[in-house]
Write a structure and sequence with these properties.
single chain, alpha/beta, six-stranded mixed β-sheet, two-stranded parallel ribbon, 11 helices, 8 strands, 46% helix, globular
């Protein structure tokens, strides 16, 4: 593993996000990745995928909602360049170099970002979470059962220990967002953050609430509390991830493992087994 900022258990309110990312400790996204395999975890840490337009959009909305002062300097409209000419290519390259590290969008996407942010700010449930919250709170702790260093960065923490997490999505309806929770392992994230909150703040989180915001018209916003059964299932998946990470800490060769080399049974999803036309 490459050199990274020092892991320091405790709570930070001022840690820049790139420094948080560089800390070598198990995050919720890392937990979900190592459940696939340790080798996938190492690859994601060493050679992260470039940000997709959807991820960049979500990052800009996060900054606008959670760090509005930073939005004015770090989220920009990219000028239009004629990249079919050498001069246009040179101008574009110079502008991009001068604004490296910032999020840049065309004017249409920038307007969509603003409208998404506005929809969140005009939603009563979202503002119930955000209006009294401290945002971008970094937690670092050592898991007592396995000795694994862990980290998490809370989008919003209210004084009454209600935690909020902002997600941009294509569809914020209950059925669609429930599928997103399962597909992307958001309940594993909720369990990971809850464990970290109890160890760092010294009290259990009262609730975990998702703020789901659609990225296109009509920019629908919904808020959902994580149910207990999802937290229990997420905690079990997290436990398996911690045990796998601990095994890799004890034996560095374990980081090379991908999938089992034995022939395995596989369960086909029930929907794929239907014989209906």
């Amino acid at each position: 593993m490459s050199h990274a900022p020092m892991f320091t258990p405790g709570i930070r309110y001022d840690l820049p996000f790139p420094e948080y990312l560089a800390i070598e400790a198990l995050s919720s996204s890392g937990a979900r990745t190592i459940l696939r395999s340790p080798a996938h975890y190492v690859e994601a840490r060493t050679n992260p995928d470039p940000a997709t337009p959807d991820l960049m959009f979500g990052s800009a909305v996060h900054v606008g909602v959670l760090e509005p002062l930073r939005f004015a300097t770090d989220v920009l409209v990219m000028p239009s360049f004629n990249r079919r000419t050498n001069a246009g290519k040179e101008d574009a390259a110079a502008w991009e170099a001068a604004n490296a590290g910032r999020l840049a969008f065309d004017a249409e996407t920038f307007e969509r970002i603003h409208r998404c942010i506005g929809a969140i700010r005009n939603h009563d449930g979202a503002m119930t979470i955000l209006s009294r919250a401290t945002c971008e709170v970094t937690m670092q702790w050592v898991d007592p059962a396995t000795g694994v260093p862990c980290k998490a960065r809370i989008d919003a923490r209210r004084p009454d220990a209600v935690l909020g997490d902002l997600k941009t999505t294509q569809d914020a309806s209950p059925a669609a967002f429930a599928r997103s929770i399962g597909k992307f392992g958001y309940h594993v994230q909720a369990a990971h953050y809850g464990a970290g909150h109890e160890l760092t703040f010294g009290e259990p989180a009262r609730a975990w609430v998702w703020i789901a915001a659609e990225k296109k018209l009509p920019y629908g916003v919904a808020t959902y509390a994580c149910p207990d059964d999802a937290l229990i299932a997420g905690a079990e998946r997290r436990r398996r991830a911690l045990e796998r990470y601990a095994k890799c800490m004890a034996d560095q060769d374990e980081w090379l493992r991908v999938y089992p080399t034995t022939i395995q049974p596989i369960a086909i999803p029930r929907w794929a087994l239907t014989t209906d036309d």
